[in-house]
Amino acid sequence: MVLSGDLIQRLQIDDPEERRTISNVRWAQYEVLLCDLGETAHYRVAYLDGVLEIVSPSRRHESAKTRIGTLLEVYFLETNTEYFPAGSTTLRNEEQQAGIEPDESYCIGSDKDCPDLAIEVVVTSGSINHLELYRRLGVQEVWSWQNSQFSIYHLREESPVRWIQTSGYEAIEGSELLPGLDMRLLSACVRNPNPLSAAKEFRLHLGDEETAPKSSL
């Protein structure tokens, strides 16, 4: 029997995710790097107060990101929800000294300069506080997929007082942007290793909590 810790370590060896952090980087250098990288999807870049983080995502990371995006688009279509995908568009604000590329992002209801929802798949943790980044950029809700489950954060304070440890975001059970979305069902379907089966199961059980596959949640 393989222990969970041993399994995770083995997966990281077989499918590594490279992460590099560099300090004392000027904003102009950050923008030059973004220009040099262009539209390549091979790297994710984050910048906060002179600290630069560059991630080369693993296959597991990209697989989870794509599955989440696919299921959300099924939800938007089946529920007739107006949405505008922003993908991994670079969000940045020089005045706030903040920049990041979410794995997936969406404007809900109407198109906007800044997405309402940002989604991150976390395989290996970095040193930059991504919630602080998203707060400075004005993203209302952040979903983090880590250890096969979602953590959901909704922005409450532009200047953190009560929720200091989470940079002004409150950890919540269900999405406030998409209150009709059953996050347990979504999580179960993201964990399904067969994307086609997951999409069919998700569509079948949308809005039907009573018949959702409880055993797999």
Describe the structure.
The protein has 217 residues and is α+β, with helices and mostly antiparallel strands. It has a single domain, classed as tt1808, chain A, CATH 3.90.1570.20. Helices cover 32% and strands 24% of the residues. Strands 4-7-8-9-10-11 form a 6-stranded mixed β-sheet. A hairpin with a 4-residue loop joins β5 (91-93) and β6. α3 crosses α5 (183-191). The longest helix is centred in the first third of the chain and has 20 residues, at 59-78. Residues 1-14 and 209-217 have low confidence and may be disordered. This is Putative restriction endonuclease domain-containing protein. InterPro entries: Nuclease_put_TT1808 (IPR012296), Restrct_endonuc-II-like (IPR011335), Uma2 (IPR008538).
Count of discrete structural domains: 1
CATH domain fold name: tt1808, chain A
Helix content: 25-40%
- Total number of strands: 11
Low-confidence stretches at least 5 residues in length (pLDDT < 50)?
Answer: 1-14, 209-217
Question: Numbering strands along the chain, what is their spatial order in the largest sheet?
Answer: 4-7-8-9-10-11
* Biggest β-sheet description: 6 strands, mixed
| Strand residue percentage | 15-25%
SSE pattern, N- to C-terminal: HEHEEHEEEEEHEEEHH
CATH class: Alpha Beta
Instruction: Output the radius of gyration.
Output: 18 Å
The average pLDDT is 87
CATH architecture: Alpha-Beta Complex
Dominant shape: globular
Q: Tally the helices: what do you get?
A: 6
* Helix/strand class: alpha+beta
Distance from first to last alpha carbon: 23 Å
InterPro entries: Nuclease_put_TT1808, Restrct_endonuc-II-like, Uma2
Pfam families: Uma2
Protein name: Putative restriction endonuclease domain-containing protein
Domain Putative restriction endonuclease: 27-183
